[in-house]
Each structure stands twice: as structure tokens, then as C-alpha cells.
Amino acid sequence: MRFSTLSLGGLLLVATAAPAFADDAAPPPALTINATATVVSDYRFRGVSQTDKNVALQGSITLTHESGFYVSVWGSSTDSYVTASLAGHQEIDIIAGYSKTFGGTKIDGGVLYYVYPKTKFAGDTSSSDFAEPYFDISHTFGPVTAKATINYAFKQKALRLDQTTGPSHDNVYLAGDLSAAIPHTPIGLTAHIGHSFGPSWLATDFNGKKGYTDWGLGATVTYKVLTFGLSYVDTNADFRNPFNLKKISNSGVVGTIGVSF
To answer: What is the tens place of the pLDDT at every residue in 44-93?
Structure first.
């Protein structure tokens, strides 16, 4: 379950030679491709570990059109309890969306489809894959960017608490994020708070609590195409690994090393 996203720095090239005529400048490409590869000490989704607090390997590739439309594929290793199956250890997110910037304000919306390959044995009628539309709006104030996000997973079988006879559920996730770049340094700072609503598989913890809050603070350092990150994450929920009852929603420090190309 997404996201473990690094804020990867960009590079601005400034020409100091004689000015070029407009006709000599190559037009920007209509399509651009970006990719990332990341190692995280613990894959946390909305504050809850998806790897039993172990290391995860992650990667993404995104194709963006100059109009603002984009498609992306993101993947991560996971633990088997994510889908309550011993067969699956992967998550693949397929994303299609549109983003546009107006001055300092950016809007971004689309649909996420979470896929968990090879999570079923013969005769297993449960469902693990589900779709989640999302929308966020952000605004930049100098070196600081504030963002508000809403994700809405409509009623689907994968969100049932009881996969056999239980009713389908929906889920709402609201979040706020702050990020800041310290001027004249490669250092970035982040703060996050979010809340999951509903009696769905995404929001009901070990004690039956229907909804929970997650939060975190982090810092990144960028060096060329590399980004190193460290963050503190926590929740007020009691999610546990169903196979060993280890708590996977308590506080923890997460380290990341990512490369963009």
C-alpha cells in the first residue's frame, strides 16, 4: 500500500555563454520518463508496517505528457500478512492521473489500483486488489510547501473485514503534509498527519477500533541523484501481524536511500 515517497532534488542548468536565439533552443519533449529505485528499512503505509518492520526494496517508473496527464507503476516487497496469505510478497500500484500548476498552486488527481500478485491458493475466493481515487492540492510559500490530500476507496470486496460473508466497505483517508527546503543546503524537512476513516480492512485495528491517526517527521539530504532520508512515524492504532501477533503500528524510525534517473 502506497506511499513511501522520497522528495528527489532536481538540477537547474544555467547557461552563461552568449545568449541563444529562440529558434536555436530545442523544444521540451512532449513525453518525459522518470524512474526511482529505493531501499527502505521499513515500508510503512499510513503508519503501519507492511514488512513486519523489515527492509523493503521499491521502484517506480512514470511517463508524463506535457499536458499534465501521467501514468506510473510503483512496486514494493511486502510481508505475507498484508493480504493474509503466505503466497504473496509483492505490491504493485498502477496509477493514472493529471496534475496542473497555477502559479504556486498545484492540483493532482487520479486513480490508484493496488495489485498483490500470487496471493491466492486454489479455492481461495478472497480478494486483495482494490482501486482508490485520490486528489490533492498544494501551495508553495517560498521554501515551504503545504499539501492537503483525500483518498477515497469505494465499496469493494477487498476492503471487507470478513471476506466470506461480510458486507463490502469503503474507506476515506485525509492527510496534511508540510515540506521545506533549507535555503542553500541539500536538506529538506517534512511533517505529516493523516486519518483513516471507516470500518474497512484499511482502518479497523486488532481491537476493533474503526479508524486511526498516523503522523511523522522526517529529513532528507540530496546528493546529485541520490537522496538519503530519515523519518519518525507513529500511530494511535493497534495493528498486529496475524501470524505472530507482533505490533506493526507503533512508533519507529525509518531510513531510506533512493536514486532517481
So the answer is: 999 999 999 999 999 999 999 999 999 999 999 999 888 766 666 899 99
Q: Are 109 and 135 in contact (CB under 8 A)?
A: yes
Q: Which residues pair with 71 in a beta bridge?
A: 63, 96
Q: 139 near 105, Cβ under 8 Å? A: yes
CA distance 116 to 141: 39
Q: How confident is the model at residue 165 (pLDDT cuts 50, 70, 90)?
A: confident
Q: 112 with 132: CB under 8 angstroms? A: yes
DSSP-based three-state secondary structure for 127: coil
| 51 close to 9: Cβ distance less than 8 angstroms | no
CB 180 within 8 A of CB 188: yes
| Three-class secondary structure of residue 110 per DSSP | strand
Q: Under a CB-based contact definition with an 8 Å cutoff, are residues 91 and 56 in contact?
A: no
Closest CA to 160 of 125, 185, 118, 191: 125
Residue 50 CB contacts under 8 Å (≥ 6 apart), including other chains: 1, 43, 44, 56, 76, 78, 79, 82, 91
Tell me the three cell numbers of residue 219.
529529513
Q: What confidence score (pLDDT) does residue 59 get?
A: 98
Q: Return mean pLDDT, the chain.
A: 89
